[in-house]
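ENTRY TYPE: protein
CONTENTS: sequence, structure tokens:
***
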Amino acid sequence: MSYAAFKMMHWPTGIENCASGYITHSAADFAQQIPPIQTDDIESDWPAVRSIGPTPNLIVTAGNVLEIYVVRVQEAGSGGSRGILDAKRGGVMAGVSGASLELVSHYRLHGNVESLAVLSVSGSDSSRRRDSIILAFRDAKVSVLEYDDSIQGLRASSLHCFEGPEWIYLKRGRETFARGPLLKVDPQGRCGGVLVYDLQMIILKTVQVGSGLVGDEEAFNLGGAISARVESSYIINLRDLDMKHVKDFIFVHGYIEPVLVILHERELTWAGRISWKHHTCMVSALSVNTTMKQHPLIWSAVNLPHDAYKLLAVPSPIGGVLVICANTIHYHSQSASCALAVNGFAVSGDGSQEMPRSSVNIELDAAHATWLANDVAMLSTKTGELLILTLVYDGRVVQRLDLSRAKASVLTSGISTLGNSFFFLASRLGDSLLVQFTCGTAPASSSSSLKEEVGDIEGDIPLSKRLRRSSYDALQDMVGGEELSLYGSTPNKAESAQRSVSFAVRDSFVNVGPLKDFSYGLRINANTNATGIAKQSNYELVCCSGHGKNGALCILQSSIRPEMITEVELAGCKGIWTVYHKSARGHGSDASKTAAEDDEYHAYLIISLEARTMVLETADFLGEVTESVDYYVQGSTIAAGNLFGRRRVVQVYARGARILDGSFMTQDLSFGASNSEPGSGSETLTVSSVSIADPYVLLRMNDGSIQLLVGDPSSCTVSISIPSVFEGFKKSVSACTLYHDRGPDPWLRKASTDAWLSSGISENIDGSDGAIQDQGDIYCIVCYEYGTLEIFDVPNFNTVFCVDNFVSGKTYLVDSFVKELLKDCRKAVNSSHEVTGHGRRENAQNMKATELAMQRWSGPHSRPFIFGILTDGTVLCYHAYLFEAQENARNEEPIAGKDSILSNSSASRLRNLRFVRVPLDMYIREEISGGIAHPRMTIFKNVGGHQGLFLSGAMPAWFMVFRERLRAHPQLCDGSIVAFTVLHNVNCNHGFIYVTSQGFLKICQLPSGLSYDNHWPVQKIPLKCTPHQVTYFAEKNLYPLIVSFPVLKPSNQILSPLVDQESGHQVDHDNASSDEPQRTYTVEEFEVRVLESEKSGGPWQTRATIPMQSSENALTVRMVTLFNTTSKENETLLAIGTAYVQGEDVAARGRVLLYALGRSDNSQNLVTEIYSKELKGAISALASLQGHLLISSGPKIILHKWTGTELNGVAFFDAPPLYVVSLNIVKNFILLGDIHKSIYFLSWKEQGAQLSLLAKDFASLDCFATEFLIDGSTLSLVVADEQKNVQIFYYAPKMSESWKGQKLLSRAEFHVGAHLTKFLRLQMLPTSSDRTAATPSPDKTNRYALLFGTLDGSIGCIAPLDELTFRRLQSLQKKLVDSVPHVAGLNPRAFRQFQSNGKAHRPGPDSIVDCELLCHYDMLSLEEQLEIAHQIGTTRSQILSNLNDLSVGTSFL
């Protein structure tokens, strides 16, 4: 393996930074949005609704992922809340019944976000303007991004870089810095500050309104939204101001010029020197004049504790700054100061006066904070408790601080307040939560009516559990079970009522990080007969994630394996459909009926075979009724569905259609005979595809013409009509579909210009034909053979939207009519050259759309998606959005008169409609062989409570819609799927049916316990303690797991074993116990639990626990296979390595424990200890090597043989590993990773019984994980380090630079950007190119990839590549660096450079390709793809086939 590919499969989920700001809308936009849809409720709801003011966007970053969300609030009693997915959380509060986060945009950056801030705009017009996002990246890069409505995404407005040779002087000769850049912004938006290289402050000066920057004025006149921008920047060297160690800084409120307050330490101290040197911190306030570039000191405060670490700016009208320390909170402003001690360790600076003590006793280091009101701050501590800090003030003078406990919640990495009613708790260690709060002076009675979730503010619990969850579970780790609402007892000056804050959890994000360890085991419902890629669905990853009370076991599966209810053999199936049948049904559709519609059972299942059609009744059991119904059963069916509000069924076959009422035919139509001459030509005209949207049926015939069946709801009959647009039409249609824009306010109406110009819509709805209007509008989407896409309204067939060359897959689709208008305005060149190029391309590549679908799933703010499948198997997906282009608005008035005379078509066009292309992450394309393409897309509204689209074919996949985001989950367990449909009846509740290509019909349901709103489906099992390491015992399907949990112990118990017996320290020990017997101390206690999962998606049971001794930490647990030298047979045992952690005065010891699992059938003693031995040094890693046990004990590595009763050492190795992090074994080779000394490569020789060092890496490297990479007959050594890099080494004793084989040589290096904690070696799957070869070479079959997990919650793999593929992809990668626009201006090559953090490092070869960059190739338009492929001397199909092979080869799990 000289070459490899790096590929992410699951992106980071642990949120590190969060902020709020008006990014996609301004605060003023909210005034129009508040009233709910119906008019009659407004008066009654109004006072309650008004309290939720404008809510800003939420911006979060996780690793290198940046996401922007908008908060969607559902008022109690508004009509938008019906729908299957609305199981509300948190009850009704302040007139709000629910709130959820909806994704606006998602970006994967080429760099990890170190710091995030929002630049807001001040000034007279501030409520109409928008904020910008500022991101800071290591070492000193700053990007300012603003939201651009026209592309529905972010655009860089300025980039600032202070790296490279011309800025090297800023580092002052240093190479390493403790932290990356820190970013803060002035609350009025006048400037921003970035602290880089520890002591350089970069001031970013923003553009002031009306300062006349070019282009600004124009945007204002057009009424377009303009965002805050940065004009220039300059540097303040804080060393010149006599600051040495800056800890934090912030801009404060209430000054005419921006004032920067800096927290810094004059001389360093530490806990051991407190008695001599304490209170070393101070704050200094600088007034920053950005025009003069001056920064005079205006006030300062000294004598702050040495453990101060955070500043918090108090909002106006109070002003000033809070300094948060580990034991105290201080308030300082120019005029006043006060402090509050939060525990017994606090001492005042001068030692004279006593500090006021708070009633709450708590450690406050590592807290995060935000403001709920201008005098109420909320702190989140390191244990996950929420505290409310109230400032008691008079005028602008703060008199005292008051701290009280609220609830316990998730361990946070940041908090952000969203508007005046929500805050977001971001977490790296648990699920992040959106919480609604009301902060009032209400007496207790009013808030008791809130139906809140019992207990703590918890993460997401699956719906099924949430309903039957016992109150004990919820209450068990509440802090003393305190009241849900909290009341600070101190009255504020203004009113004497109590201050109360109530919470309700509204939404949550699943987080699977930090992945400390994982193991790869069989799923409960595994199919033992599966082979090839389907076999991967038998496995799942069981991961240790989270920490403390957020600790959990995450079960991850990248592919869905449905739960089968029944299975029937059925050969030669072409398609399946389920239909409803309801005899009497009214015309109108009001809310009560739509609710019932979801639960209506299906009546018939129609199965189309090669030459006949079967009909089954879907009552209590499936019974065939083919003989007794009037369906067309003599040939195969093309499609079936319901018409006229489910009162009739329409069945379309090749030459005709039937309308049925239940089992009786009411109408029979035949096609093709209606042509003018009944000649030979008409006989071959058959239906090739069908789309049904009540009351229309659209047919595409096999010659590319179109026919429409128009239904008449009053008589329940249909008639054939050929739309006038298509009569005598020479353009052949390659794909078409109908789209029903449902709902009380159809979405697409907002896109037409006349919707804004006239108030015609509301009159229509009030008119007599209200019932029909309410049904929404129907559109017909057509794609022609030559690639143009048109949308018509039905039944008039006026063109409302048109895109040239849809098949090329451009990033944005804009109506060509609007494009022309824009061109006229800009005096653009005539577009004739496009046409000629177009023709030439068409010959080059005969690309067509074979299938289209358009759908808007339920939800008050949902927008439609368009899906298209092309002839080469590409799936295009577009998401609609609205954008009102300014130019056409300006040119409209003069032309309007002429337009209306010429044609009515331009007025009704959907000019404001645009589409943006959505990447489909997990989907693996399939090459379509020649011949007629079967319909592959099935839209589902409710399968197990989820909605989306199912794609059948050789690589079937589910596309589910959550938060307006498409999640792709493959389903590989049955191979190719030929037909799919939903089924809802007594025995199969909201399930589905599919037919595999092997000829099996399966009736299934989706696994219920999983959360699908994640990159991979995941099930989280809360452990309420920290998991450390997990291993898998295959025979019994058990998972032994190390966990630790905090235990309170009296301090004398902890101290006594540490006391040195010889020197009489006993006296102190006695004093301590007599003086304060009640003093306790928290220690982590360890145990090993053996877990087993009962059923798929269900809870996990603890089968056995193995407790550790006091102060003994379990470090490693492994299943090992040992050769018993007495009985001469292999035994599989559970081996545990431990260490006694007793401080630095006691020599380190550890134990090796061996247990047998499940020897006896009695379930009581599942685990029996068969051996334990104490050794010197910590036992940090274990492995079995050819029947022997390899133990790393402290600085030694010892190989033992097992006699059945004891371990006897047979060989040892003593080179200086300090602490072995990982041991890997292949045959008789050993790879050993050390915490500081990089890797060692050893071999074991049986005959001389010796462990010998083959080679090592001479550099110093802090290893996190190691593993062997096998490619055919080559063995490589992979190591991941503390700087987030991966290196691949190889052993080549014959090469001169390896110093006669002593030194491992570098084969490749790469920066991953996350801490890798574990590698897992898995055999790669055979790909299509391997299958075509008659006998694949052993190099192809014996090829292993490494799956890895990281502390960010991401999963990826490193896979070997052959040289030809590598060279091709590497040249493509070099092209893509320049030809793809990168978000935030980041350079992918710089990001993937090896980071040595200032240590000397010789750069290694660049032999890893980055699939994170290569995946952009798929998102380019067809022309760009062909052009780039041509430039690097290959073809598009070759590149796509290579990328596809890599995806298929690594589609594990």
The chain has 25 helices and 87 strands. The mean pLDDT is 83. The CA atoms of residues 959 and 968 lie 4 Å apart. The two ends are 24 Å apart (CA to CA).
